[in-house]
Design a protein that fits this description.
Length: about 190
């Protein structure tokens, strides 16, 4: 019984690693059958671990979203609220540009699976909110800017630059333009 559990854990880890590569290369519509083949397991094994595509995508993005959440929490005590906000948004933008399916998952709000219900966007928005509030109190962003607005903007930038020759560089450039409008240097 323990061998099955160890085997199941290895399969899960292998499927997740392959899924991360496939989603980064092909986006949120990466073939589940290709993931299974590359991982060396059957389609049923993939579906046993990840019953729906959104469940798989959530697992693919979970670790990095958690790291972004932790980083947002760390930045809430930074001396410069504007710099903290920009650092976090830049990290989100870089990740969204490199993880092709993330922006699509955030944009869809989990429409394909109500249980998923936009978990990516919700988690990111909740992490970002204290940074936005702090920057607004410091007067470094306009008061009407919300965390939801900024996650939506980063999502749109990631979707718009996904097929660009240099998506990360173009996303960074567009984020800089956006932030100059929302938070001009004083």
């Amino acid at each position: 019984m323990t061998a099955q559990r160890a085997d199941a854990r290895r399969n899960y880890a292998r499927i997740l690693a392959v899924a991360e590569e496939e989603v980064a290369a092909r986006g949120a519509d990466a073939s589940l059958e290709q993931i299974a083949r590359t991982a060396g397991v059957g389609s049923a094994t993939v579906r046993r671990h990840f019953p729906t595509r959104p469940t798989l995508l959530e697992a693919v993005f979970r670790e990095r979203i958690e790291a972004l959440r932790v980083r947002a929490h760390e930045l809430t005590g930074a001396d410069d609220p504007r710099a903290a906000l920009l650092e976090w948004l830049s990290a989100l933008s870089a990740y969204a540009a490199s993880a092709r399916g993330l922006a699509e998952a955030m944009a869809s709000g989990g429409a394909a699976d109500p249980a998923y219900a936009g978990g990516c966007a919700t988690n990111l928005t909740e992490a970002l909110a204290p940074l936005v509030d702090r920057a607004a109190r410091a007067g470094t962003v306009t008061p009407e800017v919300t965390a939801t607005d900024l996650v939506t903007l980063v999502t749109g930038i990631a979707l718009a630059t996904e097929h660009h020759r240099t998506p990360a560089a173009e996303a960074d450039r567009l984020l800089s333009l956006t932030m100059a409008g929302i938070s001009p240097r004083g």
